[in-house]
Amino acid sequence: MRKKLVAGNWKMHGSLQQNAALLERIRAGVSGLACDVAVCPPYPYLGQVQGLLSGSDVAWGAQSLSEHSAGAFTGEVSAAMLVEFGCRYVLVGHSERRALYGETDVAVAAKFEAAQRAGLVPVLCVGETLAEREAGLTGDVVARQVSAILDCSGVVAMASAVVAYEPVWAIGTGLTASPEQAQAVHAAIRAQVAAMDVEVAKGLRILYGGSVKPQNAKELFGRADIDGGLIGGAALVADDFLAICLAAN
Ligand code: PGA
């Protein structure tokens, strides 16, 4: 049985004061739950999060990282730095990074590798745009994004990674993939990995992301290949995030 994971992607939101209030509620609310829970704040708050969540049932991670280990890369943050702040996870290839900052499959694969070299668990984000879905290209796009990692790191790398399927048209829009739509893509991702290694595929956690809310979480998480969620907007509201965690429990 794969343990469910609910991870909050705070994006560029928060303040010291807001974070403290939110984390206090989350820390208390998830104590003893059977699922894994994590939050991914902006970089500057990782120290605060580490201080407030150490010893709790909530893990934390970053939203991106550099593919380089150190050097003249102004504005970048290395995997080793994230490890120093106690991160367990790091998102790679979020669609906003791909679309707004030009991250290619090749760059995402390099970041994935850098994360694993440092002992972090990469959360590989994949998903199609609305135009791609309407053109019937969902399967091809997602398979290409997953292949970029399999080609570069090998299937065994997936044994210590998480995948998040996030249809771009569902992110922050209030539109959610139906449980059937999401399940179909999740099953295809698992089959793609299984074609190379059945055991790795069986253990791989595949999260759904894109307007997950307390109202739709339970139905999504009830599908065979949906192993939890990557939560944006609802991760900033303690009651909503906790309700989603409970739905995964
Ligand atoms: P959303 O974001 O839940 O606000 O749609 C999800 C994500 O981008 O990870």
Task: Name a few traits of the molecule.
globular; 11 helices; alpha/beta; binds 2-phosphoglycolic acid; 249 residues; 8-stranded parallel β-barrel; TIM Barrel
Architecture overview:
This protein is an alpha/beta fold and 249 residues long. It is 44% helix and 15% strand. The chain has eleven helices and eight strands. It has helices at 16-29, 46-53, 79-84, 95-100, 105-117, 130-134, 138-153, 179-194, 198-203, 214-221, 238-248; strands at 5-9, 36-40, 58-62, 89-92, 121-126, 162-165, 205-209, 228-231. An eight-stranded parallel β-barrel has the order 1-2-3-4-5-6-7-8, surrounded by six helices. Helix 1 runs parallel beside helix 11 (238-248), helix 5 crosses helix 7 (138-153) and helix 10 packs parallel to helix 11 (238-248). It is globular. The model has no long low-confidence stretch (mean pLDDT 97). The structure holds 2-phosphoglycolic acid. 2-phosphoglycolic acid is lined by residues 9, 166, 171-172, 209-212, 230-234.
Give the CATH topology of the largest domain.
TIM Barrel
The domain tally reads 2
Which structural class do the helices and strands define? Answer: alpha/beta
* Proportion in helices: 40-55%
Number of DSSP E strands: 8
- Strand percentage lies at 15-25%
What are the bound molecules? Answer: 2-phosphoglycolic acid
Report the span from N to C terminus: 13 Å
- Global morphology: globular
CATH class descriptor of the largest domain: Alpha Beta
Instruction: Enumerate the strands of the largest sheet in spatial order, edge to edge or round the barrel.
Output: 1-2-3-4-5-6-7-8
Mean pLDDT: 97
Which CATH architecture of the largest domain would you pick?
Alpha-Beta Barrel
